[in-house]
Every structure is written in structure tokens, then in C-alpha cells.
Amino acid sequence: MERKYGTSVLCLLHTRLRSRFDLSLIYFTRAGNFPRTVKSIRMPIADKVAAAHRINDLLKGLLAAGAFKLKYRITVDPQLDAAFEDVPEILVEFAGPDSGTMLDRGAELLRSFETLAYESLRLGPDEHTKISFDCRGYRASRMQELRTAAEVAAERVRKTGMPYQFSAMSSRERRIVHLALRDQSDLRTESTGEGSGRSVVVYPKNYDASKKPAPAPFARRRR
């Protein structure tokens, strides 16, 4: 079977409005650059070189279509420091005049490009940590931000005796929070919600999870 996108492919483009970038989600067709049908068979991530080439082809089309002033480097099996809990199998790093645009609105465009790469390679949610897109050290900065938020949430739960619910996060970011608190013997963490609305809840160890956790403002993405 084939998964059909019709006559258009979903893509993120930008336009300049009053000397500022305005990101918009639109559909477009570029003959020869993107397929109109995509087979539902998943590419094995074990074929890392082929996956890297596929990401490269995707990015060439996206950057050209959006006229982005960006360059990028794709690294297979990158050597990263211990700050990264999950070392990706493929790392894509962006740089260039439009780097600020990539990081606007909580790195919305960077994350959107990453999501398109997941779709291109047919990666399931449990495989998203195998690929990572970064720009000007955003990933390490965001990781530290989440760890700090996890520590603050833990102290709040201890003081109030009530659970704490983070804002919605990606599977990678939820994992960072879980790992940050895994050694806290008096607490436990669980993921809750569906789809893009999934988040992490921090509970006192023996708390009855059937009670509704209080929402909290920490770990929201930077604007």
C-alpha cells in the first residue's frame, strides 16, 4: 500500500513581513523535488548512511523552497559529551543567518524540520531519539533547562505533597525529565495524555494516581 499526500506535500515556509519572518504552514507542489506518494514501508535506521542521504535530500528541498539562509552538517554516530542522555545515531546541526528563525517560538521551525525527517524515514515515536536536529547549541541548553525544571518540580512535590504536571513535551523531552528524577526514591514520574499533548507528572511515591494532578507552569518552551 502507499500513503498518499495527494498533489501536495506538507512543508514549512517563511515570508518576510515588515522585516520579520512570519512562519506559516502551507501546502505546495514542486515537481521533481518531492514524491506525491510515499510507501508506508519503514526504512531501517540500521542503514544510517542511506537515512542520512534521505535527510539531506529532504533538507535541500525545504531550504531551497523556503529560501532559507542556512547551512547544515549531518553526522552519523556523532561523538557527544556526557551531557546527552541519549546520543542520537544521526545528528543534524544548522548554522547561518537564519539561525534565529530556526529558534524562534521555542525552536518551532527546528522541531518541525525534525518532525518532517521522522516522517520521511517512517520512524515511530519510540525511535525519535535516534535522530536529532540542533542549532547553535539549542539542544544542550534545552536539556539543562528541563533538568532544572525537574529539580524545581521535585522540591515543589516534596513541600506540597501534591503531584506536579509539566506542559506538553516531545517524547525525547519527557525522557529527559524521567531520567533527571529516576534516582529520587521518594518520588515517581509517569507520562500522561495522548499524542502531542502528552506530558510528565511527578508524584509523591505513594500518591494515589487516580486523583487529578494540579497543572503547573514549568518547562514551557521559550518564546
Question: Whole-Å distance between the termini?
Answer: 41 Å
* Strand arrangement in the largest pleated sheet: 9-10-8-11
Q: How does the helix and strand content classify structurally?
A: alpha+beta
Beta-strand content: 25-35%
* Unreliable spans: 1-44
Gross morphology is: elongated
Report Rg. Answer: 19 Å
Q: Estimate percent helicity.
A: 25-40%
Structural account:
This protein folds into two domains: 2-136, no CATH class; 141-215, Ribosomal Protein S8, Chain: A, domain 1 (2-Layer Sandwich). It has four helices and eleven strands. The protein has helices at residues 48-66, 99-121, 138-160, 171-180; strands at residues 2-4, 9-17, 20-28, 37-39, 71-76, 90-95, 131-135, 164-165, 187-192, 199-204, 214-215. The protein has a four-stranded mixed beta sheet with strand order 9-10-8-11. A three-stranded mixed beta sheet has the order 5-6-7, covered by helices on one side. A two-stranded antiparallel sheet has the order 1-4. Strand 2 and strand 3 (20-28) form a beta hairpin.
Architecture blueprint of SSEs:
Elements: E1 2-4, E2 9-17, E3 20-28, E4 37-39, H1 48-66, E5 71-76, E6 90-95, H2 99-121, E7 131-135, H3 138-160, E8 164-165, H4 171-180, E9 187-192, E10 199-204, E11 214-215
Parallel strand pairs: 6-7, 8-11
Antiparallel strand pairs: 1-4, 2-3, 5-6, 8-10, 9-10
Short description:
This protein is of the alpha+beta class. Helix content is 34%, strand content 26%. Helix 1 crosses helix 2 and helix 3 (138-160) packs across helix 4 (171-180).
